[in-house]
Amino acid sequence: MRAIRSIIESIADTDTTVLIRGESGVGKDLVARAIHSASARAKGLFVKVNCAAIPQELLESELFGHEKGAFTGALRRKPGQFEFANQGTIYLDEIGELPLALQAKLLHVLQDFQFTRVGGHAPIDVDARVIAATNRDLEEAMARGEFREDLYYRLNVVEIQVPPLRERREEIPALAAWFLSKFNAQYGRQKTLSPETLVLLTEHPWSGNVRELENMIRRMVVLADGERNFEAQATRVRLPQATVAPLPKQSVSESLREIARRGAREAERHALAEVLERVRWNRAEASRILKVSYKTLLNKIAECELTAPVRRLS
User: What is the pLDDT of residue 2?
Assistant: First the structure.
């Protein structure tokens, strides 16, 4: 993920369109939000539109708005998501599902920075950065005539490929600690993970990627037997590969507990440092992302002995 952070830093002060690609659940939303937070548009809105979740007949109105009387049920003028994203960022998730007719209208917006509402005639100027994401093979979609080639090249000025979680297992402890802290705060719990669970989390295949890991940690926090159920499930997956008998638990229990504590501390410190770096040490933004109070965040920063980098004057 260092390469992705480097790209985000490189494009932070630009308005280039970005295409984020990767399997479902790898964290494309997080990358899009990081780009927005690092940009000069961070004070503007971050507007997400899931192109696959909205019926095609409503998607144009959702994106560009409509005038009163534009269609049956249009009782009043309604601004679209592009208008809400003015001076900010609009994130078009599942862009590969956008109908061809709307692809042409989106291309016009990217070229001329203008659009018209459904049923309207007056052009509306828009100043929004466009970030798109997909898990589809857009090149194959273009070959089948399902995705416009000119729109593809307009969107794909900067491409970010987010690898699946199975290819970056070293990040799993930090992610697990981040989600654990987040859900403990959200649900008022004090859940901790055993060292055995940390090992199983790192070895799990995670076909659902970061989203699956997030949901699993949430389950462990809210359910009394959530961790035990995961250990049983993960152990069944590992059984065919098990060739070495485990050591007696008594002989290693103390050291495992210490390993778990140290690993959890390091994972929490790493996750906190990563979030702070991503938002350029904007503590208010970091507390919002981590869903903890500002005071709790300051205490954690002090506890982890983190210090803000010195910014050079330009």
Answer: 77
